[in-house]
Design a protein that fits this description.
- The chain is built from 14 helices and 14 strands.
- Helix 5 packs across helix 10 and helix 8 packs across helix 9.
- The chain is of the alpha/beta class.
- An eight-stranded mixed sheet has the order 2-9-8-7-6-3-4-5, with helices on both faces.
- The structure holds pyridoxal-5'-phosphate.
């Protein structure tokens, strides 16, 4: 007899599909494919030896504690270290403002769990991080989206979106995934003021902030909010929940991220985290602390920046050499991605299949919009951190063949 699992799935799981990117990654793992699809860091930069030493040290000096259950909030020395590091960026957090999560992805799930009732709308950038959408969808989220340009979320559409009373807004101010864009300082101030005016809390997702390759660091929304709006109150943290992660600076496989929020909100997240996984792996937290300490993380981030800056430059150069003039792309000042815009009429799913025939992959732009929110133009997200410089050049050359063929099929007499 059939077990009939399907008929027993909860209603909230209806319409949830496996993430487009996960399915794509399977195809793009073929060795002959140059993949710009995943958001993968360069494997060559993983500090494998430092991890090896750290594991040995943790096991020999704190073996039993590191293998024991731990506090749901996370390992205290690691939370202290995170609070100290964030202070350099102006984020004044105490240890009770910091919750360790199993990657930022878990933070997004916990946010959905805590804040979203079925039918609530979340204000998102269009396009937005494609992993946030399934995390929020399962709680029945709807969306109101605000388009972005090179300077991030466009403020002229913001006020109308805020007036429609979203439950919260989800913003990626630094080197946005997928746009590669950065919210300008002026827009940051205006966004924080507008959000406060309409009483809409902000979730600031910042996995890439440390990976800046040019220009000056800009103040995080969580800092602008506190310094400008909450000066006379005792709060360190106000209207903004801030997320970050070790995935891009140490290694994504350790699944370590954190969130910063007022202590009462952290307590609520702790209750939800207890239901999810009790706590993030104790052993991993001990090891990450040991790896990051004594200035290693800073030194390592400097190294990653120089590797990724070169790869970004190689990709930008190859795009201007090989791509047709109808295509435009963003110039990311940091992070892992850039965003290509192609003329109206190009079907990016068809282009994706054509690109795979040339043994090159990207993520089609329509994956980054909430349901029914696709723009009329076609987009591609290209990752520049994972492939080696010479592969990047070759991959862009191959991709340009697929793009030109699609353009020719649109305008057969194009010269
Ligand atoms: C914007 C954004 N948020 C969250 C995540 C998830 O990161 P983590 O590996 O910490 O779960 C990613 C991963 O690429 C991301 O780009």
């Amino acid at each position: 007899m059939s077990t009939g699992w399907t008929s027993r799935y909860a209603l909230r799981t209806k319409g949830i599909k496996s993430s487009a990117i996960r399915e794509l990654l399977k195809i793009t793992q073929r060795p002959e494919v140059i993949s710009f699809a995943g958001g993968l860091p360069a494997p060559e930069v993983f500090p494998v030896e430092r991890f090896q030493e750290a594991c040995q040290k943790v096991l020999s000096t704190k073996g039993a504690c590191s293998l024991q259950y731990g506090a749901s909030e996370g390992y205290e020395p690691l939370r202290e270290m995170i609070a100290r590091n964030m202070a350099r960026y102006g984020i004044r957090a105490n240890i009770d403002n910091v919750l360790i999560t199993s990657g930022s992805q878990q933070a997004l799930d916990l946010i959905g769990k805590l804040l979203i009732n079925s039918g609530d709308r979340v204000l998102v950038e269009a396009p937005t991080y494609l992993g946030a959408l399934p995390a929020f969808n399962v709680y029945g989220a709807g969306y109101v989206s605000v388009p972005i340009d090179e300077d991030g979320l466009r403020n002229e559409s913001l006020e109308a979106a805020l007036r429609s009373e979203p439950k919260f807004m989800y913003v990626l101010p630094n080197f946005q995934n997928p746009g590669g864009t950065t919210l300008s300082e002026g827009r940051r101030h205006e966004l924080v003021v507008q959000a406060d005016k309409y009483g809409i809390p902000i979730v600031e997702d910042d996995p890439y902030g440390q990976l800046r390759y040019e220009g000056e660091h800009l103040p995080p929304l969580i800092v602008i909010d506190r310094e400008n709006l909450r000066r006379d109150k005792e709060y360190l943290i106000g209207n903004v929940i801030y997320l970050s992660t070790f995935s891009k600076t140490l290694a994504p496989g350790i699944r370590l991220g954190w969130m910063v929020a007022p202590p009462d909100v952290i307590s609520k997240f702790v209750q939800l985290k207890q239901g999810a996984d009790l706590h993030t792996s104790t052993f991993t937290q001990y090891v990450a602390y040991e790896v990051a300490r004594d200035g290693f993380l800073d030194e390592h981030v400097r190294h990653i920046r120089s590797v990724y800056r070169e790869r970004r430059d190689v990709m930008l150069q190859a795009l201007s050499e090989f791509f047709p003039p109808e295509a435009t792309w963003t110039h990311p000042r940091g992070g892992l991605f850039l965003w290509v815009t192609l003329p109206e009429g190009i079907d990016c799913q068809r282009l994706f299949r054509a690109a795979l025939r040339e043994n090159v992959a990207f993520v089609p732009g329509d994956s980054f919009y909430p349901r029914n929110g696709h723009p009329p133009t076609a987009h591609m997200r290209l990752n520049f951190s994972n492939a080696q410089p010479e592969q990047i050049r070759e991959g862009i050359r191959r991709l340009s063949i697929a793009v030109k063929a699609q353009l020719d099929s649109l305008h057969p007499v194009r010269v």
